[in-house]
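Risk register update: the risk that structure generation would not scale has been downgraded. Supporting records follow, first protein first.
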Amino acid sequence: MKNKLLVMLGMSLALFSCAEDDAQKIESAPKTKLSQKATNQDPYALGFKKAIKEMSQLRYLPTKEYTEKYGNELSPERKQILYPAALELIYSTGITEEELKAETNGDLNQILNKAFSIYTNK
């Protein structure tokens, strides 16, 4: 019994140490062309980029159960992180609040998709 307990303890320690190594690799990954382009953009695009980084932190990543249930859809918590920066980015293009409401019917997913489209085109 003690041997099994010690083996399980050792395995769990190894698992946690590997998980920390993976987290460090993610944080120290080289910047992509998209993120390098964003540094030359306007402050609204930079704000959106910061929101993307914020929602990509490990504490906001979806659980296995959420991914199995909803696939790759962003969780409501992650959407709320992006939403304010998305609105600022959209409004910075000259679109008014009324035009945005008419175009998206206030749908959060459509607003975020529009912001991602603007961000990738800049």
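Supporting record for the second protein:
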Amino acid sequence: MLSKRFFKTKNEAEVTFEFQHPEAEEVQLVAEFTDWQPVNMKFNKKGRCFKFKQRLPSDQQFHFRYLVNGCIWDNDHQADGYIANSFGTENSIVNTQRI
């Protein structure tokens, strides 16, 4: 799940990535804005999900995926969209356009 917070004085959005997976012991976010390098997400006991916050420039789209336990790729099932990648699967899209 994605949630976004926009700032009045800055051209950026704070995006919160939240992800649940029944087999997850660890989850990493892998995205364009991390140069496709895995970033560890923190487990939130209260929400029983993994979370990561990132500030991103407004009015852009970014591709991302989740890596579960270092071997299972998954998408955000509530992403803003999906696009085919060169591996024969799809990437999730987060859109930072103000609505």
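The chain has a mean pLDDT of 94. On this basis the risk owner (M.S.) recommends closing the item.
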